[in-house]
Amino acid sequence: MRAYRIRTWATAASLSLATMIGAAACGDDGSVTPPDAPGPTPDGQESDGPVAGQTIRLSEDITANTTLKAENTYIIPRLKPLFVTNGATLTIEPGTVIKGEQGSVLVIARGSKIMAEGTKEKPIVLTSSQADGQKVKGFWGGLLVLGKAPINNNHVMAPGAAQSDDTTFEAFTSAIPDGKFGGTDPHDNSGVLKYVRVEFAGFNFVSNREFNNVTLCGVGDATVVDYLQVHGGSDDGIELFGGTVNVKHIVSSQNQDDGFDTDNGWVGKGQFIVVQDVDPQASAEASNGYESDNHADDPMVDNAFEFGALPRTLPTVSNVTVIGKRDYHAPDGMGHYDHFAAVIRRGTAGHYSNHIWVGFTEGFSFRDTATDEQITAGNLFIKNTYIFNVGPVDADHPNGNPFAPGGLNEEPYLTNGATVNGTLQPWNNHFADPKLVAEATSLTAPSFALQADSPALTGAEQPAGDAFFEAVTFVGAVGTEDWTAGWTAYPQPAAP
Question: How far apart are CA 112 and CA 496, in angstroms?
């Protein structure tokens, strides 16, 4: 997540988006659907033209139940925010390909649904409209899902602060009601994302503000997110702004900013997540494996109010493998590496267990008093985790010093645990090689399995009494059989 998040949209961004929407509405981008390639047919209606094997431009918002068919290719026109709205359901058949032109984005508005249920053999692909081999990171805006589940964006208890259960996504102005997210329904249903790949997104809609590959905002736990790859984006792979949605079998590969970013009161669950952060770009700010905040840092508001906003970010996440680029140096000319294993800050909490972190130039960065209070309250921990080849090598840490300078002192927590209510609660972490297979850092054909003699094949400790979490023995996202094989892909961007 680049820069700090604000609750109201700056004038420059408002003008930028107004220009975007105006261009799309007026057809200045040439986005008229040709007569021989009709738009998608609303469900229950017959089409008057040929429907098989067409390239179809999605020039108008989707306001009725609509199915996109695998026999066609669909294009979102340049600078078009394509809204699925009015309570409509967008169904996408297995094997369908949707391509976004520059600056476009697919938006599922509150009350609408996306039913994108691919298969291992026929995943659904949302990608750049550029030709294969010529795609660039950040060309389009990816997938944005806006739900009605609780968020904390406007729950800052500062004197005089307005309180609201929802907010407008930062790329849109308040004049666009379909741009709102958040609410009071933790069980809201935005549909299904299963066996879906989203590639080359992260469009920069204003300086230092980009879309992610996938952004889930206030999404509820009746939504299914399982077997999702987010690849080759210029910002975060996946970012969750509040909500209660649970995620499973996630691959965040070769994105330039954070691999897995959580903010604004996300209290969902996650299991089997791979972050392959081997193509970082930290010239603007740090590119991290994990980043978690409770609330944005607005310089006009006292941190005590912001960082205590409720609901507090407090996910429960197990079985994750986070892989960095050990020899990365940020091109800022100041000697900063800015490639952290994890940045945990701004009053966030979280229960993290059975992780593997390997290969980051900087270690774990726990920051600010509000976050320390969550640790000592037992609301934030990283347990039963392998940490190896993380942080700079020194005499005391030949395999890397994972304790980042500045902020809080991470060393006693990561090595021993935290004292909660007068009792030491050990975190039981392992500073040893988990023995991932050599292909874990491959750009084109990675595998995230463990070697046959890996110490991480046993010893997992799953959250107790929760049926969401599958009972596996291995630590990390993958055991000896790689569930990422067969449906993921790792296309490389065009050479700069």
Answer: 39
Q: What is the pLDDT of residues 289-339, one digit of tens each?
A: 999 999 988 776 777 788 999 999 999 999 999 999 998 877 665 555 589
Q: Are 43 and 65 within 8 A, CB to CB?
A: yes
Contact 320, 270 (CB under 8 A): yes
Cα torsion for 20, 241, 211, 404, to the nearest 10°?
150
- pLDDT tens-digit map of 229-264: 999 999 999 999 999 999 999 999 999 999 999 999
| Close Cβ partners of 39 (under 8 Å, ≥ 6 residues apart) | 33, 56, 57, 58, 59, 60
Spell out the long-range contacts of 480-483 with Cβ–Cβ below 8 A and sequence spacing 24 or more. Answer: 480/449, 480/450, 480/452, 481/449, 482/447, 482/448, 482/449, 483/249, 483/272
pLDDT score at 304: 77
Most distant CA pair in the chain: distance in Å?
A: 74
Q: Rounded CA gap, 286 and 13, in Å?
A: 23
C-alpha–C-alpha distance, residues 58 and 113, integer Å = 17
What residue type is 262 in one-letter code? T
Q: Which two tokens stand for residue 94?
A: 């297995």
Which of 231, 202, 201, 298 shows the shortest CA–CA distance to 1? 202
Contact status, residue 212 vs residue 171, Cβ threshold 8 Å: no
In 3-state terms, what secondary structure has residue 363?
strand
Domains of the chain: 11-457 (2.160.20)
Taking the CA atoms of residue 88, residue 251, residue 466 and residue 191 in that order, the dihedral angle to the nearest 10 degrees is: 0
- Cα–Cα distance for residue pair 163/451, rounded to 1 Å: 52
**Are 187 and 221 spatial neighbours (Cβ–Cβ below 8 Å)?**
yes
Phi, psi of 104 (to 5 degrees): -80, 165
399 SS3 class: coil
- 3 state DSSP class of 106: strand
For β-strands 97-100 and 124-128, DSSP reports them as parallel
User: What distance in Å separates the CA atoms of residue 62 and residue 43, rounded to the nearest whole number?
Assistant: 11
Cα–Cα distance measured from residue 102 to residue 100, given in angstroms and rounded to the nearest whole number = 7
Cα–Cα dist 143/92, whole Å: 13
Phi first, then psi, for residue 466 (nearest 5°) are -130, 110
Q: Tokens representing 99?
A: 């391509």
Strands (E), 190-339: 191-199, 204-206, 209-210, 214-217, 224-231, 238-241, 246-253, 260-263, 269-276, 290-293, 316-323
Pairwise CA distance, residues 126 & 146, whole Å: 18
Closest CA to 249 of 263, 270, 235, 267: 270
Please state the pTM of the whole predicted model.
Answer: 0.91
